[in-house]
Amino acid sequence: MAAISCEQSIAASPERVFAVCTDFANAAKNVRGIDACEVLTEGPIGVGTRFRETRTMMGKKATETMEIVEFDAPRSYTTLAESCGCQYRARFDFLPEASGTRLRMTFEGTPLTTGAKIMSFIMRPLMTGMVRKCVMQDMADVKAACEANA
Hints:
Elements: E1 4-10, H1 14-21, H2 27-30, E2 34-39, E3 50-57, E4 60-72, E5 76-83, E6 86-97, E7 100-111, H3 114-148
Antiparallel strand pairs: 1-7, 2-3, 3-4, 4-5, 5-6, 6-7
């Protein structure tokens, strides 16, 4: 899957938006597309933090374990996950702007197995549209959560 990049302006500071996005314990409260999210590691959020996120996609529950592999509070963080023969990388950038923050999320799936490579080629148009729609809804939910108490 080619990288998908989406942006959302949010009327809140980068620190506030970063805090909401990295509050994995409350992710299901802030983002309606997330059914549940469980932090698997103890201590402060940073490189090495692992969490398990459950979503309903195409009518089925999907649970993925993600790990933060880059962390530069409050500017950016990156997560990695592996599932169904693919590696998924999501990067979140929190860019200051006059009205608050421009949140940019870049998502990329890389097939690792032959089966995943074949399915990726066949399903690319459908998956790209579905992922973009999901990311945009997640970003709208983050915007609402950040601006509700800003």
